[in-house]
Amino acid sequence: MRSSDSISSPPATRNRPVVTLRSFEIGDREFFASLATDERVVKFVGDGSPWSAEQIDSRIDLALRGLPASEPGAVRWYVAETEGERAGLFVASRREDTVEVGYWLAPARWGQGLAGVMLDAGLLVVREVFGALDVEAHIDPANVASVAMVERRAFRFVGRADGIGRYVRAPGAYAA
């Protein structure tokens, strides 16, 4: 997926909104900073503390570096938009044999079903960009909504490291 490309979720239904993922651009810095400095959003990220401007800039630099998707360490960020507004961020990071995914949703958009739709669209992007690799998510067990969301999408718990649950989805489970 090139920087100008985007992917949309299936058409909206009464209970399922439409989300479009587009590649992150430097103009999205303020939006990302609003997520990264919101205690509610980062509660289950790292040590749970809001990020500093240096952390934000460092992560944005990494996201915009543009390593080839086949190279471990390659990162792709996508801004999730709905109803013409930014709503969240979907992140995919290439590891040796897997792709780790993560997602952040603006608190004003919580409870609207957007996180699941964003993850569904993101899984399609991962398949397109990184190929047929296992996808993993690392989730704090206290984040029960996120655990339930990935389990509904065929991610399976495979263990814990440093108290964080590791959930893996095999390539054959891609049909969203």
From TrEMBL:
SUPFAM superfamilies: Acyl-CoA N-acyltransferases (Nat)
Pfam families: Acetyltransf_3
MF-aspect GO terms: acyltransferase activity, transferring groups other than amino-acyl groups
Highest taxon of the lineage: Bacteria
Record domain N-acetyltransferase: where: 19-176
PANTHER family linked: GNAT FAMILY, PUTATIVE (AFU_ORTHOLOGUE AFUA_3G00765)-RELATED-RELATED, N-ACETYLTRANSFERASE DOMAIN-CONTAINING PROTEIN
Protein name: GNAT family N-acetyltransferase
